[in-house]
Amino acid sequence: MIKEAIGGFCMALADSVPGVSGGTVAFIMGFYDQFIGSVHDLAFGKMEDKKKAIAYLIKLGIGWIIGMGLAVVILSALFESHIYVVSSLFIGFIAGAIPLIIREERDGFKQFGKGILFLILGIVLVAGIAWLNGRAGTSSMDLSHFQLGNAIKLFFIGMIAISAMFLPGISGSTLLLIFGVYIPVISAIRAALGLQLSYVPNLIFFGLGIVAGACSVVKIIKVCLERFRPQTLYCIVGMMVGSFYAIVMGPTTLEEAQAPLTFSSFHWIAGIIGLALVLGMQFAKEKGKKA
Q: CA of 216: how far to CAs of 4, 38, 243, 253, 273, in Å?
């Protein structure tokens, strides 16, 4: 229970940082396959598999809710005022994780010829999304009034954005920013929580898109991990490499945009702490296997 909750907690913290995704943390911490498999079983598995998946995802979800609540209530101000420290932390975290992943999946990474194109694809995909994000304007979409055209648009945006939760290196909030609906959706959620029910119909369409996207993408990822694991692993590592650019550009996506992370604004202590965190997670994981 505690192990899964900690995993969900760390995923939520990652999801709240510009340029980082929960999928990255799940892969680094070694429960990515189980996470994808559980979501897949929940959607497509037999009843016994569904029960196991629900039990696992509830434990993970408890940690995720606590982590996201902490990020929204407390850490959002920290991200705004100390974004360079947070960005440096995650750069150290991912820099330490990549060689560990390659070591653990050494058999999958032996087929370099099959994987190089997928490595490049992963880098271009994430870096390209981050680049587009820097050129995305704000949206004036009004979600307080239901319009079928906006609702359908929200459905498909929800499908695409939720994919980021399952793909390492891609941030869901970044995709929402690119499509120009990040602020409208966040504002609508806050309004709905304040019992302004006029926002609910549009949010329902957005939520249905999230469900449809989750069911679709986990099926694809599970098949890829089972049948094309070397290529998928190279693509995932490419996404993680590309996330360096996304994190560097993360400060430019804040409500009050700041300059990109540079060597002069990089916090080396935070970077070392991030590196130490991933090494500590790896040590704990290996110790748990021996126990």
A: 24, 14, 23, 28, 36
The 10 Å Cβ neighbour count of residue 15 is 22
Give the separation between CA 12 and CA 67, rounded to whole angstroms.
5
The pLDDT, as a whole number, for residue 155 is: 92
C-alpha atoms less than 13 angstroms from C-alpha of 270 in its C-beta half-sphere? 13
Any residues with CB less than 8 A from the CB of 167 and at least 6 apart, and which?
21, 23, 217, 221, 236, 239
Q: Are 114 and 174 in contact (CB under 8 A)?
A: no
Percent of the chain with pLDDT over 70: 82
Question: Which distant-in-sequence residues (6+ apart) come within 8 Å of 90 by Cβ?
Answer: 14, 17, 19, 20, 247, 274
Cβ atoms within 10 Å, residue 256: 6
Closest C-alpha to 236, from 87, 93, 148, 125: 125
Closest alpha carbon to 132 in 284, 253, 275: 253
d(CA 140, CA 161): 19
Dihedral of CA 211/214/220/222: which sign? negative
**Rounded distance between C-alpha atoms, residue 145 and residue 151, angstroms:** 10
Residues 6+ apart with CB under 8 A from 57: 38, 39, 42
Structure tokens at 232: 């998928």
Q: Give residue-wise pLDDT tens across range 9-44.
A: 888 877 766 556 777 778 777 788 888 888 888 888
User: Ramachandran region of residue 180, left (φ > 0), alpha (ψ -120 to 50) or beta?
Assistant: left
Question: Could you report the per-residue pLDDT of 168-179, keeping only the tens digit for each?
Answer: 666 666 677 667
Alpha-carbon gap, residue 126 to 120, rounded angstroms = 10
C-alpha closest to that of 91 among 248, 284, 290: 248
